[in-house]
Amino acid sequence: MKALATFELTAFADTFVAFAAAFILGTLIGVERQYRQRTAGLRTNVLVAVGAAAFVDLGQRVAGDAEAVRVISYVVSGIGFLGAGVIMKEGMNVRGLNTAATLWCSAAVGACTGTGMVAEATLLTCFVLAGNTLLRPLVNMINRIPIDDRSTEATYEVSVISSREAMPQMRDLLVERLEAADYPVSDVEITDRGNNTVEIVATLVSTAVDPHEIEAVTSYLEQQKGVSDASWDGSTRD
After folding, report:
1. First to last CA, the chain
2. Topologically, how does it sit relative to the membrane (predicted)?
């Protein structure tokens, strides 16, 4: 029987240690995720760590270190598909990125134990836990800092609603006032809104703005004949 012929007590003991270490370290990471009620909790992180350890250990026992390295590369790419399953987009917000990154780290922990690097896997686990716990107060503190639009690079749009007859003059005036305020325009779009009205949207070159300066431009345009509304908006790009 091949199972008995290939059984080696020393190799089996090494595999047991690798799986046990992956299980314990994956549990430590998973407990923190489960406590915070994340999509990928305790069992998922444990299974990812143990599975990665199993694949790497198998490759190493069958074909040596070279094959283990190749298996690790497949684990790195394969875990990305699993991580994508916990990422959700809700409107302009994306949730689950941290959970996906934690799964990726759990796979790295398993890969370390699968190659017998239990001490390194333990060190990595400590860093993962530190990233998910010790950095949380710092993240909350940063999130409470008000955003200064003058130091934030973003894409801004200035919109003017005017009558169809006043459109050519308002379009030129919009570009003129923005460039006079040192805000170059990259594009101007005109959309028919019906009822003899059109919307003129000027997109600024990606830059930082002073809200008071933009407000001054929109206030001036709003006072012009044929203009019913003027506003501006911006979207930050990381």
Report:
1. 59
2. Multi-pass membrane protein
